[in-house]
Write a structure and sequence with these properties.
The protein has 197 residues and is an alpha/beta fold. The protein is built from seven helices and seven strands; from the N terminus they run H-E-H-E-H-E-H-E-H-E-H-E-H-E.
């Protein structure tokens, strides 16, 4: 199913304000990064509203803290959809958190704009309500392929990565690109996000 942008705004025109849900980590280990997205969304909100809004209506960004955690992000998205009646979601920063809310947006038939998450599984799931604006880990690794061994001289590499969909996808893709060029991965250590040991 494909939703046209005109149909989206026709749905929104019944409201005096178009509510856009934002699921970002504003607490926890990824709070700094999430706050950058929130700041950008608030800036866009003020600029769009100052220019007359969208189809003559102001937009309102409604924030929920997903903490970059799948369960917390799912709860946040449910609040935005049930309580706040948002017409679109943006989020959820972390790949695992985004994957957790994807079935929900499909059930509610509400578009999800993926702003940061890079795991390929997000696109590969084929969810017609999910639109990504960021590259994925495979694209990132392939784009840097010409520089890793020949320009940077990497021969032996060790990974320390978060044990989540993002970290595992990065390790898989970078290992593929490096080993194809003759480099060796000597160690891979995974940690829980936010772990300080």
């Amino acid at each position: 199913m494909v939703i046209g942008i005109g149909a989206f705004f026709n749905l929104a025109s019944a409201q005096s304000v178009i509510k856009i849900g934002l699921v970002e980590p504003v607490s926890g280990p990824a709070a700094y990064n999430g706050q950058n997205v929130v700041d950008g969304a608030r800036l866009a909100e003020s600029e769009i509203n100052a220019a007359g809004g969208v189809l003559g209506q102001h937009i309102e960004v409604v924030l929920q803290d997903g903490k970059a955690d799948p369960a917390e992000s799912l709860n946040a998205a449910e609040k935005l959809l049930d309580r706040d009646k948002v017409k679109v979601l943006i989020g959820a920063w972390a790949s695992s958190a985004t994957l957790a809310i994807m079935p929900l947006v499909q059930r509610y038939e509400v578009p999800l704009i993926v702003e940061t998450s890079t795991a390929e599984k997000i696109t590969e799931a084929g969810n017609p309500w999910v639109f990504r604006i960021s590259s994925n880990s495979k694209i990132d690794a392939d784009a840097l392929r010409p520089y890793l061994v020949s320009k940077l001289g990497l021969k032996k590499v060790a990974f320390m990565a978060a044990n989540n969909d993002f970290g595992r996808a990065v390790v898989t893709n970078w290992t593929r690109v490096l080993t194809q060029q003759g480099a060796t991965v000597v160690a891979t250590e995974y940690h829980k996000p936010g772990e300080t040991n």
